[in-house]
């Protein structure tokens, strides 16, 4: 049961003493180095860890996406991990521009096994860590600060000495003061400096210092303060790569990584779609695409986001949430009527503008950049408005309904959605459209053929239609085709309509396309009736539209 006074049990996280902090004014202008830990942190968090086939499939996906540093596993954890990693090296599966990275605890036997798994590799990063925070020192290890620092120093020497035994490999090193974000900053710095003293990094061969929020325990601004503090106080700043490794325990792993970059970090570690222990690691996809929407090429290619999702879901046996940023099934979908209307207008404005700048309400990124189409951007249920219904018809059938016709048909769809209590798909909407405007089913009047003659301003319509199960010829005179059709319907069939509005458009583009025609008519008793016709000939489409309206009048009698 939750406490009425949680301060009796929980303590607020202390602020960082950082006068004149600079990161709040900084802007991300370039992508970081990316490290995927899907095959390590991500894999260890799975109910059923990946087998060799799935790990290889995941590795190939990361390479295809463009990740250049991949933590391929923990080779000392067991034969499965060791064999997979050594197999990548043996099979020549690692591209020359990709760094495989492996993780190891700070123990002599484990470090030796780790180096052995990479024997023959052209280049590699060996990542060693030891936890430094008070909880781990006091509870887990029961060691004081000097003892913890000595573990880091011993590990650094083992990295140096094991690398010297395999001089043909281009070795790089990473050190993590694990649990950094909940440790004393000066002690984390002390451990990092001790490791640097052993490994002697240079600007040409820098040491990666990974500063993990192993458990997210504070707001992301505090993590940014911690990163800026380290960047200010570390010696040989030009000889180290500051790497971020955030978790999502408080739901702000992405924000912490972004603020950490603003604070001076160079590298981001994480997993695709944020897989990882507990609530997950930093989501590399979201961080990368956030940059993309700010005009920065992140260096990672998610042009086919659905292929990435399918592979990740197969390998992890975990679904990507429908609301997951950029990737979820519903993230580019609007059901709300006002949202749909804004999006529809945004697309129309986008099409009319003569520039490439993306500016569509509710869509921070163009779905097509990620391999998605626009069909699912607007979906219809009981919350939808006329703009959403019109969008579906435009995307599915190429019809651009006039505004008043949109309002007329949206009432039909609203009633259907209320009755069915479910989302309506494009087929549902089209069936309702055909039925409401008498394009199918009962049609008292159906055009067989027609002929138009006469001079300008005095046109004669002569047509053959089906009526009451047979064929009938009708004719009428007017100042144009539509008025002559109306005259024929009035004089010979008793259908009295007056056209209030007419519009037409091509369906699609090119020279061999169909046309759609729309009429808004008034009856003598004041009712408004809409009609639609489509045909490869626009004149025929307009005749069909008038007959569509006449059919509505006839069936409403």
Automatic annotation (TrEMBL):
Its cofactor is Mg(2+). Mg(2+) binds at residues 41, 245, 247, 281. Transmembrane segments: none annotated. The keyword Repeat does not apply. Its EC number is 2.3.3.13. Residues 440-557 are annotated as: Regulatory domain. PANTHER family: 2-ISOPROPYLMALATE SYNTHASE, PTHR46911. Catalyzes the condensation of the acetyl group of acetyl-CoA with 3-methyl-2-oxobutanoate (2-ketoisovalerate) to form 3-carboxy-3-hydroxy-4-methylpentanoate (2-isopropylmalate). This is 2-isopropylmalate synthase.
